[in-house]
Amino acid sequence: MPVDAPAPPHRSRDRSFLLAMAILGGAYVVLIALMVVADLASTNVASLSAAIRSPEIRYATALSLASATASAALSVVVATPIAYLLSRGQEGRESTRPRARAAAYAAVDALLDVPIVLPPLVVGVSLLVLFRHAPFSWISEHVVYEIPAVVLAQFVVACALAVRTLRATFEQIGVRQEQVALTLGASRATAFWTVMLPQARPGLVAAATVSWARSIGEFGPVLVFASATRMRTEVLPTSVYLELQAGNLEGALAVSVLMIALAAAVLVLTRVLGQSRLAV
Hints:
By secondary structure, this protein is an all-alpha fold. Helices cover about 80% and strands about 0% of the residues. Helix 8 packs antiparallel against helix 11 (about 200-215).
């Protein structure tokens, strides 16, 4: 009769390794789940209903959704050419590309990390200072502490994240198919629109999702650059802040639960739409 081969001696070590990885990663997943459960358990239908009926919260909800959507759309539009050029500029590092050009790409790449690594309040202060100088000061009264300031504050950070997502997408696609299109007589623009962009669709969906999620939760830059004026520049994150400042913990929790529900609904819808388009 055939005899089963003994298990490799490292099999038990593999199981221990995977178990350790699962425990370490699972601890973070459980922490996030417990945070959501704590929010849900600490609020009630009455406070949530009161928040939804409040004209201020309704306005903040509408402004949050509109500004986050505008910020995400603008982020994808601006991030796409930046990511494409950076991904192509990084190719051929081993070639005889001029050092000045390589240094320029590296400088731009580093500069795009600034909105991500800076403290959020510093981003808001920087925008505020920027609009004290020409030519931005010419339109300052129509931007600072107004609705455009909300979108701009969200966009500055969200676009940097979109660039990172789309750059990885373009780098994964590579240049072979684009070069084939160029050799067949297509222009660079035609190759980009007909070859590169359709293949980058998953990245575009991911970039839009990340940008929207970051925008809907942006607080520091919005608070400094747009303020938190009720029925004017108040968005949901600043609503939580205002409720806490007023000592209304129940109201802050209700708005937090509302933000969780809105973010979850939109993110799920975005991913479902992205997967359905990929299946086509």
